[in-house]
């Protein structure tokens, strides 16, 4: 004990402090001071001198608490030592009320824990110990404030707080002054206001207009920065109360990179648009050249074909006497049939060329559309009979006056019936109906139970040179795939439309609707 305590050998230290503390302090670690009832120092543990900030030999047994005041000059925490002694200086220990777990922040920054208890013999036992991990009240708030201040200063967005009454700068962060300088910030109050709705390059004039932040508006402005370059700044703000003052906070976001990227994107889009327009122009020229070529070639081919068809017709009729061998007659029939078929294809190609060149005109007259339909049926009957198709037609009982191009209306029906015959196996069923309604107009419908069209091909068959049926089957069928394209074009030229309903292996129904405005009574 003598190595730990400084006391008279006759003084029972352990007996003196027994029962004073719930947990006995450790004299080797804690500073323990025992005072007698009359205020005399009876004993103290070794760590006391270091904790109180006193040099070796500063304390002596029997000294009064008031004598400690004289030690202030040699103490590193004199103010604490003075207060520590003052509570015991009166010599009346009853005035030194017990302190349990009381912490004191010293000038040196240390934190000391004081635990003072009454002893059973009337004296006082005081324990003083350092608290290394103690956080004083207010430290967390100060640390949070410092952290927020650091965030404010390091924020990459410029921040400015202005007083509404004086336009005085209440706060500005480092980003703002780094961009535009402290002179700009200090000169804001002297600027002339400019309403945010007016275009101006004077940044300060915008900032001092209170309506800017009140309107919660955003404003983009280009301004020269201290580094010699220009910055595009996005301004935004809102009203706040700052340290009791009505104010407005304004944020400065550097959007220079975004503006450059937008400008680059606009340039790229403009260049791509130009390239696409050039490509489209070249494609249009190529398409026009193709169309003109087809039109010219069609005209050139029709002349010799008409001669071939005409002479083969004369040979078939043997107008100038018998040909001779029956085989020659058969050959002449093939020549005539092939020539007629080729002429139909050329006429279709010529019609396509007219459509693409915008030269498809209508020779409109008032005619009986029911009679035209009947005449077209009569023309197709040999083909119907050749394949053994069962054909039915439903027509109005009387004449139906219609204003349009009669030849093209007949071509619509001929194309629809020809397709039905071609794409329906032998002994199939084909039906035609013509209905007239004052509201719906003229509805011409042709249906069959042929091979049908896949759902995914319904739009494709309306393109020129398309036959969207079974590949093996379609290759055995004559035709260039122009019928439905021409039919739809003729219908639209008359203000009508064409609809297709079809299912593979079940058949097809094609409906052509012509406007009721074209119905007129026959004279």
UniProtKB/TrEMBL annotation:
Identify the SUPFAM superfamilies for this entry. ATPase domain of HSP90 chaperone/DNA topoisomerase II/histidine kinase (SSF55874), Homodimeric domain of signal transducing histidine kinase (SSF47384), PYP-like sensor domain (PAS domain) (SSF55785)
- Protein localization: Membrane
Output the SMART domains linked to this UniProt entry: HATPase_c, HisKA
Alphabetic keyword roster: ATP-binding, Kinase, Membrane, Nucleotide-binding, Phosphoprotein, Transferase, Two-component regulatory system
Top EC class of this enzyme: transferase
Q: Name one GO molecular function term.
A: ATP binding
User: What Pfam families does the database record attribute to this sequence?
Assistant: HATPase_c, HisKA
What EC numbers are recorded for this enzyme? 2.7.13.3
Could you confirm whether the keyword Lyase appears in this record? no
Answer yes or no on keyword Transmembrane helix: no
- Histidine kinase domain spans which residues? 296-518
Catalysed reaction per UniProt?
A: ATP + protein L-histidine = ADP + protein N-phospho-L-histidine
Q: Which GO terms describe its cellular component?
A: plasma membrane
Q: What is this protein called?
A: histidine kinase
Organism encoding this protein: Nisaea acidiphila
User: Taxonomic lineage per UniProt?
Assistant: Bacteria, Pseudomonadati, Pseudomonadota, Alphaproteobacteria, Rhodospirillales
